[in-house]
Specification:
About 35% of the residues lie in helices and about 15% in strands. Helix 5 links the parallel strand 3 and strand 4. The longest helix has 24 residues. It starts with 6 loop residues before the first helix and ends with a helix. Bound molecules: 4'-deoxy-4'-aminopyridoxal-5'-phosphate (PMP). The site of 4'-deoxy-4'-aminopyridoxal-5'-phosphate has 12 residues, from helix 4. The site of 4'-deoxy-4'-aminopyridoxal-5'-phosphate (PMP) has 12 residues, from helix 4.
Length: about 350
């Protein structure tokens, strides 16, 4: 820390992104919930074409992309805001709606960026413990009268809430915003997008990083009542009007025009998830019933951190979190079927070696 940092920066504990191996390190990479598939050929081509126009500023309104995304979701374009990854729309929500006297609340085990955004923006926040089985107790949020952030499916547990529960939470907190972070929704949860037409306090956030294979492009979106979108646009135009670069806008359009590609990949990932869950259960792992593109698993005979290091030593990267309640677990991204077979085989060897 330099002697120039202000009080808030000095006390921040930043988010730690998952490890990105260096070029010469060859891992089976199952640690940051990326897609194992390349972006759709159409997305790649449109991004490459956009490179020739990088001398010009990108469209700050993301008009074409916004209109297409809105149409695909059955909402009006003024109810959509495209952002630099969904991390940015989450930050915009904290900046626009939370603060002194407008506290935030989220589960004790969830996406690690929520408390970081809260601290960064000087937002008072509380966490609500998940149940013993890591499920969200919906009753905890009914009429809680704070701004609510819930990932659905939740991370790193993968557990999803039904739409009816989301609606109860939203309806019971009309004077607060409810942000439903749908980063993993395509892998098996019900989307709350249609509820944004009926509830003026609901923001749904989505990403192109997971099911759409565009993590490196950084593209996310918020869907909400037009008044909420306008408030977040005020934040956007007060920080970085050109938040989504032109290659990314083009890639996003290409991806949306190539739904079949995404759907096919989703089918492969979901069946690889079922395969992996079945095999790991048979090996004695405790697993959550994941609706996401990752598996959250613990084994009674091997400490979570030890398993993480043993896998890493054998060329497989997974994600381990040190939080007290989850330190025995690892979050394993679902990759290609052949990589999941290698994972299962490697875990068998590790379990054999510690007998
Ligand atoms: N929400 C959740 C629950 C996540 O796990 C992630 C990925 N780290 C994000 C949001 C943000 O993803 P991105 O910024 O790539 O859209």
């Amino acid at each position: 820390m330099s002697k120039f940092s202000n009080e808030r920066t000095a006390s921040l504990v930043p988010y730690t992104p998952g490890e990105q191996p260096k070029k010469n390190q060859k891992y089976i990479k199952l640690n940051t919930n990326e897609s194992p598939f390349a972006p759709s050929p159409r997305a790649q081509k449109m991004a490459a074409d956009a490179a020739a126009r990088l001398n010009l500023y990108c469209d700050p309104t993301c008009r074409e992309l916004t209109e297409l995304f809105a149409e695909k979701n059955g909402v009006e374009p003024e109810c959509v805001l495209m952002t630099n990854g969904s991390d940015e729309i989450l930050n915009f929500a904290f900046m626009a709606f939370c603060g002194e006297g407008r506290p935030a609340v989220f589960p004790d085990i969830t996406y690690g960026f929520y408390p970081v955004f809260a601290e960064l923006n000087g937002v008072p926040y509380e966490t609500v413990p998940l149940r013993e089985d890591f499920s969200i107790n919906v009753e905890d949020y009914i009429g809680i009268n704070k701004n609510i952030f819930i990932a659905n499916p939740n991370a790193p547990t993968g557990l999803a809430l039904p739409l009816s529960d989301i609606e109860r939470i939203v309806a019971s907190n009309p004077d607060n915003i409810v942000v439903i972070d749908e980063a993993y929704v395509d892998f098996g949860a019900e989307s709350a997008v249609q509820l944004t037409k009926r509830y003026k306090n609901l923001i749904v956030t989505q990403t192109f990083s997971k099911s759409r294979s565009l993590a490196g492009a950084r593209l996310g979106a918020g869907i909400a009542d037009a008044a909420l979108i306008a408030d977040m646009n005020t934040v956007k135009y007060s920080t970085n009007p050109y938040n989504v670069n032109s290659m990314t806008q083009a890639a996003g359009i290409g991806s949306l025009l190539d739904e079949d590609y995404t759907r096919k990949n989703l089918d492969v990932i979901k069946s690889a998830r079922e395969y992996t869950a079945k095999e790991l259960s048979a090996l004695g792992f405790t697993l959550t019933n994941s609706s996401a593109n990752f598996i959250f698993a613990a084994h009674p005979d091997i400490d979570g951190e030890k398993l993480y290091f043993e896998l890493k030593a054998r060329g497989i990267l997974v994600r381990h979190f040190s939080g007290e309640r989850i330190k025995n677990y690892n979050r394993i991204t679902v990759g290609l079927p052949k990589d999941m077979q290698t994972l299962v085989k490697t875990i068998c060897e590790i379990l054999e070696s510690i007998k």
